[in-house]
Every structure is written in C-alpha cells, then in structure tokens.
Write a structure and sequence with these properties.
The complex is a heterodimer of chains A (305) and B (134).
Chain A: H1 12-27, E1 40-45, H2 51-62, E2 66-71, H3 84-91, E3 97-102, H4 107-114, E4 119-124, H5 130-144, E5 150-155, H6 162-171, E6 177-182, H7 191-200, E7 203-207, E8 219-222, H8 233-239, H9 247-252, E9 258-260, H10 281-299
Parallel strand pairs in A: 1-2, 1-3, 3-4, 5-6, 5-8, 6-7, 8-9
Chain B: E1 10-17, H1 21-27, E2 37-45, E3 49-57, H2 67-71, E4 76-81, E5 84-89, E6 96-98, E7 119-121
Antiparallel strand pairs in B: 1-3, 1-4, 2-3, 4-5, 6-7
Classes of the chains: A alpha/beta (305), B mainly beta (134).
Chain lengths: 305, 134
C-alpha cells in the first residue's frame, strides 16, 4: 500500500506518468467517470480549507466515487481528545482512501503509520502540502511545456509557507532550475532548504524587492503571509502587506512570465492582475482536480484502458 | 586528586566535555536503571584541561550507546571485563536516534499525540547544534 506524504514520495518518472494521466483525464473526462464506482474518500480536515477539501471531494466524485469526512477539528472526535492514530484506524473501516489536513506537522505521517488505507497528506502545519506541489508542477508543465530550464521567483512567506518548501524540494530534481527567493528578512527561506540546494548544486539568490528581479523571471510564485502561522499578531500585521503584485510590476515582467499562487489570495496580488493572461492561479485550481483524480487512481492502483 | 575505585565489568566513558556528563547520564537513560554509576566532573586532563568521566557497572552489551557520539563523537568508550580494559573505541554519530531527544518544535504532532516515538535522523555529520538542556 502506498501513501502520498511528501512530493518526493514519487520519482521523477512516476511523476511524469502521473502528469500524463492527469492530462489524459483533462482531455477525456468521460473515460474516467466510473473508474471509482463504489469507492469512498474520507476528507479529514482538522484545519479550515475551501479549495483543497472540495477539490479532493470533486476529484473522487468525477471518478464516480463518494466523499465523507469533516471540515474542522471541532466537528470531529478530536474535540473529545481522540488521537490522529485512533481516528485513522476508525476511518479505515469506512473509506478506501483518506486525505488528511492537520495544523500539526507530521500528522499525515502518523496517520499513515496506523492506516489500513492509502493516506494523502493534504497539508500538515508549515511542513508539506504535496498535492499543491503536484498541481503547481502540472500547471508549470502545461504552461511552459517543461519542468526545468527556467528561473522561478518565489515570493512572500518563505519561512512558514509549506507550499514553498514542497515546491522547492520537488523542483530540485529537474535540470537547470534557478531559484530566486523574495521575502522580508524575517520570513526568509529556512536554512535546510538552502542547504539542500547547495548540496545538490542548484543556484539560488535571495532578495527583498520584487522589482529588483522580476525582469529575469520565467515564473513568479506568490504566497500569502499566513496569520495562522504567527504566534505574535503584531508580527503578522507588520508583514502581511509587505508585497503587492500589481499591473505596474507586471508591465516590467516578461510576456511569458506566468504568475502562480496556491490561493487563497488576500492582498499580495492586486485584482487588476486577474485579467492579465499571465495570471495562472485560477488555472492551477482546475489542474488540481485533474492531478488529484490521477493521484487517487494511482494510490488505489486502478487502471483505466 | 579524587579517586574512584575500579569496576569489574562495565563501561568507562572518558573525554566527555566538562559539564556534559549529566546530559549523557540522562540520554543513556541511566536514571531509569539500577546500575552503580560514578559521575566524575571537572577531572584534570592534559589534553582537554577539564573533562567529565562516567563509569557504569553493567553488562557492557546491555547499554544502547547511540547517544554517546551524539553528545560528542570524541568521547572514548572503554569496555571493562574482569577489571581490565578489553576494548577502547570511539563511535560515529548514528544515522538515527530514537527515544533520546524530544521534539522541541511547538508545531509538531508529537506535542499533542500521545505515545509517538521521537526519532531524529542525522542530516549532516559535520555540523552540530547546541544540545538542548534537560
């Protein structure tokens, strides 16, 4: 039995197969409409989410399956003190696959240790968010036609942003990727990420202002400063509007510099960028459903001819 | 000079950085065992100036020594049998250390989930961080 806990759980060739499957699902949705008839996904969301939970449920429904679960720790037995280990043992009796989001880091790993069904990490604290990474990569692959040979700017909360850590780890397996980390000093990318890049021989630079680097970027990955990751409200307020990508900045960028964002967006991308053809963040959401459909089929070992 | 008697069977951990003997005592879980233990602090050392020494009377094979190189890979482990040193060794840092340290990350699942093993993996044998206080 296989789980999906980090983006590195899949080799580069396995990811190619997964992305090919997701692309085929996009082209031929009817072919997969009954692939999971009679199957159920449990969405165990201890932390609020709109996109990710609905995307998993939509993915299973598109495959002919059904979804059950909860959308907050207060709606589950966690409120009575039940452990993640016990919850997943119970849920294993009800569902065929589980997607778990938890505010504590390592929760999905714990769930996988005790589960009888495949577990997908749908986000664990500031740690990992592998399906977001898979859909980010799928979006890049579809828009740029390749994974590798580009300069990617990653901007915002690089310290606590789990999507950032997952994405950098995943892209650091492809050729000729140059990383440009754009953040306030307080939210710079953790040392373990730059250590990993150093060890693998990837080049990167760190800076504070988007305008200093935007002209050389092939992709710009924006992130939100997340209130829930701060212990101190004052720090959050000071940093939350540090970056605003607007049409003025977009005029400085290349014609094919796509803007990605894991959403939800708050103020870091001005709404006047939404109509720019390079704004790819809503396309990411659509690719997210296809990637999650492909992932569910892969983990359940279901093949459609 | 302080004199502590010889042991017949057990371990003598020598060249411990001065002040670290109690840390090692806890990491080896000696507080949970009934072995006779001598903790010598701030002993004079030509090489180190001051050092700590830990003597444990026990079956040498019964003690999990993984925390020793974790505290400092230069600590010498003397294995004593029949009142004599039968082996003198230093150990490389273990690839994995289990049940010795507790995770200090306040966002870690281990802060709220009971009974989880605390496992740490060696990421870089050349770098070290200050050891957490007990």
């Amino acid at each position: 039995m296989r789980h999906c806990l980090t983006p590195l759980d899949f080799s580069v060739s396995e990811l190619e197969t997964l992305f090919d499957l997701a692309a085929d699902i996009e082209k031929n949705p009817a072919k997969y409409a009954h692939a999971c008839d009679g199957k159920k996904i449990a969405t165990l969301f201890y932390e609020p989410s709109t996109r990710t939970r609905l995307s998993f449920e939509a993915a299973m429904m598109n495959l002919g399956g059904k979804a059950l679960g909860f959308a907050g720790a207060d709606q589950s037995s966690a409120a009575k003190g039940e452990s993640v280990a016990d919850t997943i043992r119970v849920v294993s009796c009800f569902a065929d696959i589980a997607a778990i989001r938890h505010f504590k880091e390592g929760a999905a790993y714990v769930a996988a240790q005790y589960s009888d069904i495949p577990v997908i990490n749908a986000g664990d604290g500031g740690h990992q968010h592998p399906t977001q990474t898979l859909l980010d990569m799928m979006t890049i692959r579809q828009l740029k036609g390749r994974l590798g040979n580009f300069t990617i700017g990653i901007c915002g909360d690089l310290k606590f942003g789990r999507t950032v850590h997952s994405l950098v780890n995943a892209l650091a397996r492809y050729e000729n990727v140059h990383f440009v980390f754009i953040s306030p000093p307080e939210l710079r990318v953790p040392d373990y990420i730059t250590d990993m890049l150093d060890a693998k021989g990837y080049t990167y630079e760190e800076c504070i202002k988007i305008e200093d680097v935007i002209t050389k970027l092939d992709l710009l990955y924006m992130t939100r400063v997340q209130r829930e990751r701060f212990f101190n409200e004052e720090d959050y307020i000071r940093l939350k509007d540090f970056y605003v990508l607007d049409s003025r900045l977009m005029r400085m960028a290349r014609d094919d510099m796509y803007v990605l964002h894991p959403l939800p967006r708050v103020n870091e991308i001005s709404v006047d960028v939404d109509s720019d053809p390079r704004a790819a963040y809503f396309k990411q959401v659509q690719y997210g459903v296809y990637v999650r459909m492909a992932l569910i089929l892969t983990l359940l070992d279901i093949h459609v001819d | 000079m302080l004199n502590v008697g010889k042991i017949e069977e057990g371990l003598v951990l020598d060249h411990i950085e001065a002040g670290k003997a109690m840390l090692l005592y806890h990491y080896l879980h000696l507080d949970r065992e009934e072995y006779p233990v001598a903790i010598i602090k701030n002993a004079r050392s030509e090489e180190m100036g001051k050092k700590d020494i830990l003597k444990v009377e026990c079956d040498p094979d019964k003690l999990n020594l993984d925390p020793v190189p974790f505290v400092n890979p230069r600590i010498t482990i003397n294995v004593i049998k029949g009142g004599e040193i039968v082996e003198k060794k230093v150990m490389n840092p273990p690839k994995e250390i289990r049940g010795v340290l507790k995770c200090r990350n306040p966002r870690c699942i281990s802060t709220i989930e009971q009974g989880l093993p605390h496992i740490f993996y060696l990421s870089d044998p050349k770098r070290s961080l200050p050891l957490p206080l007990l």
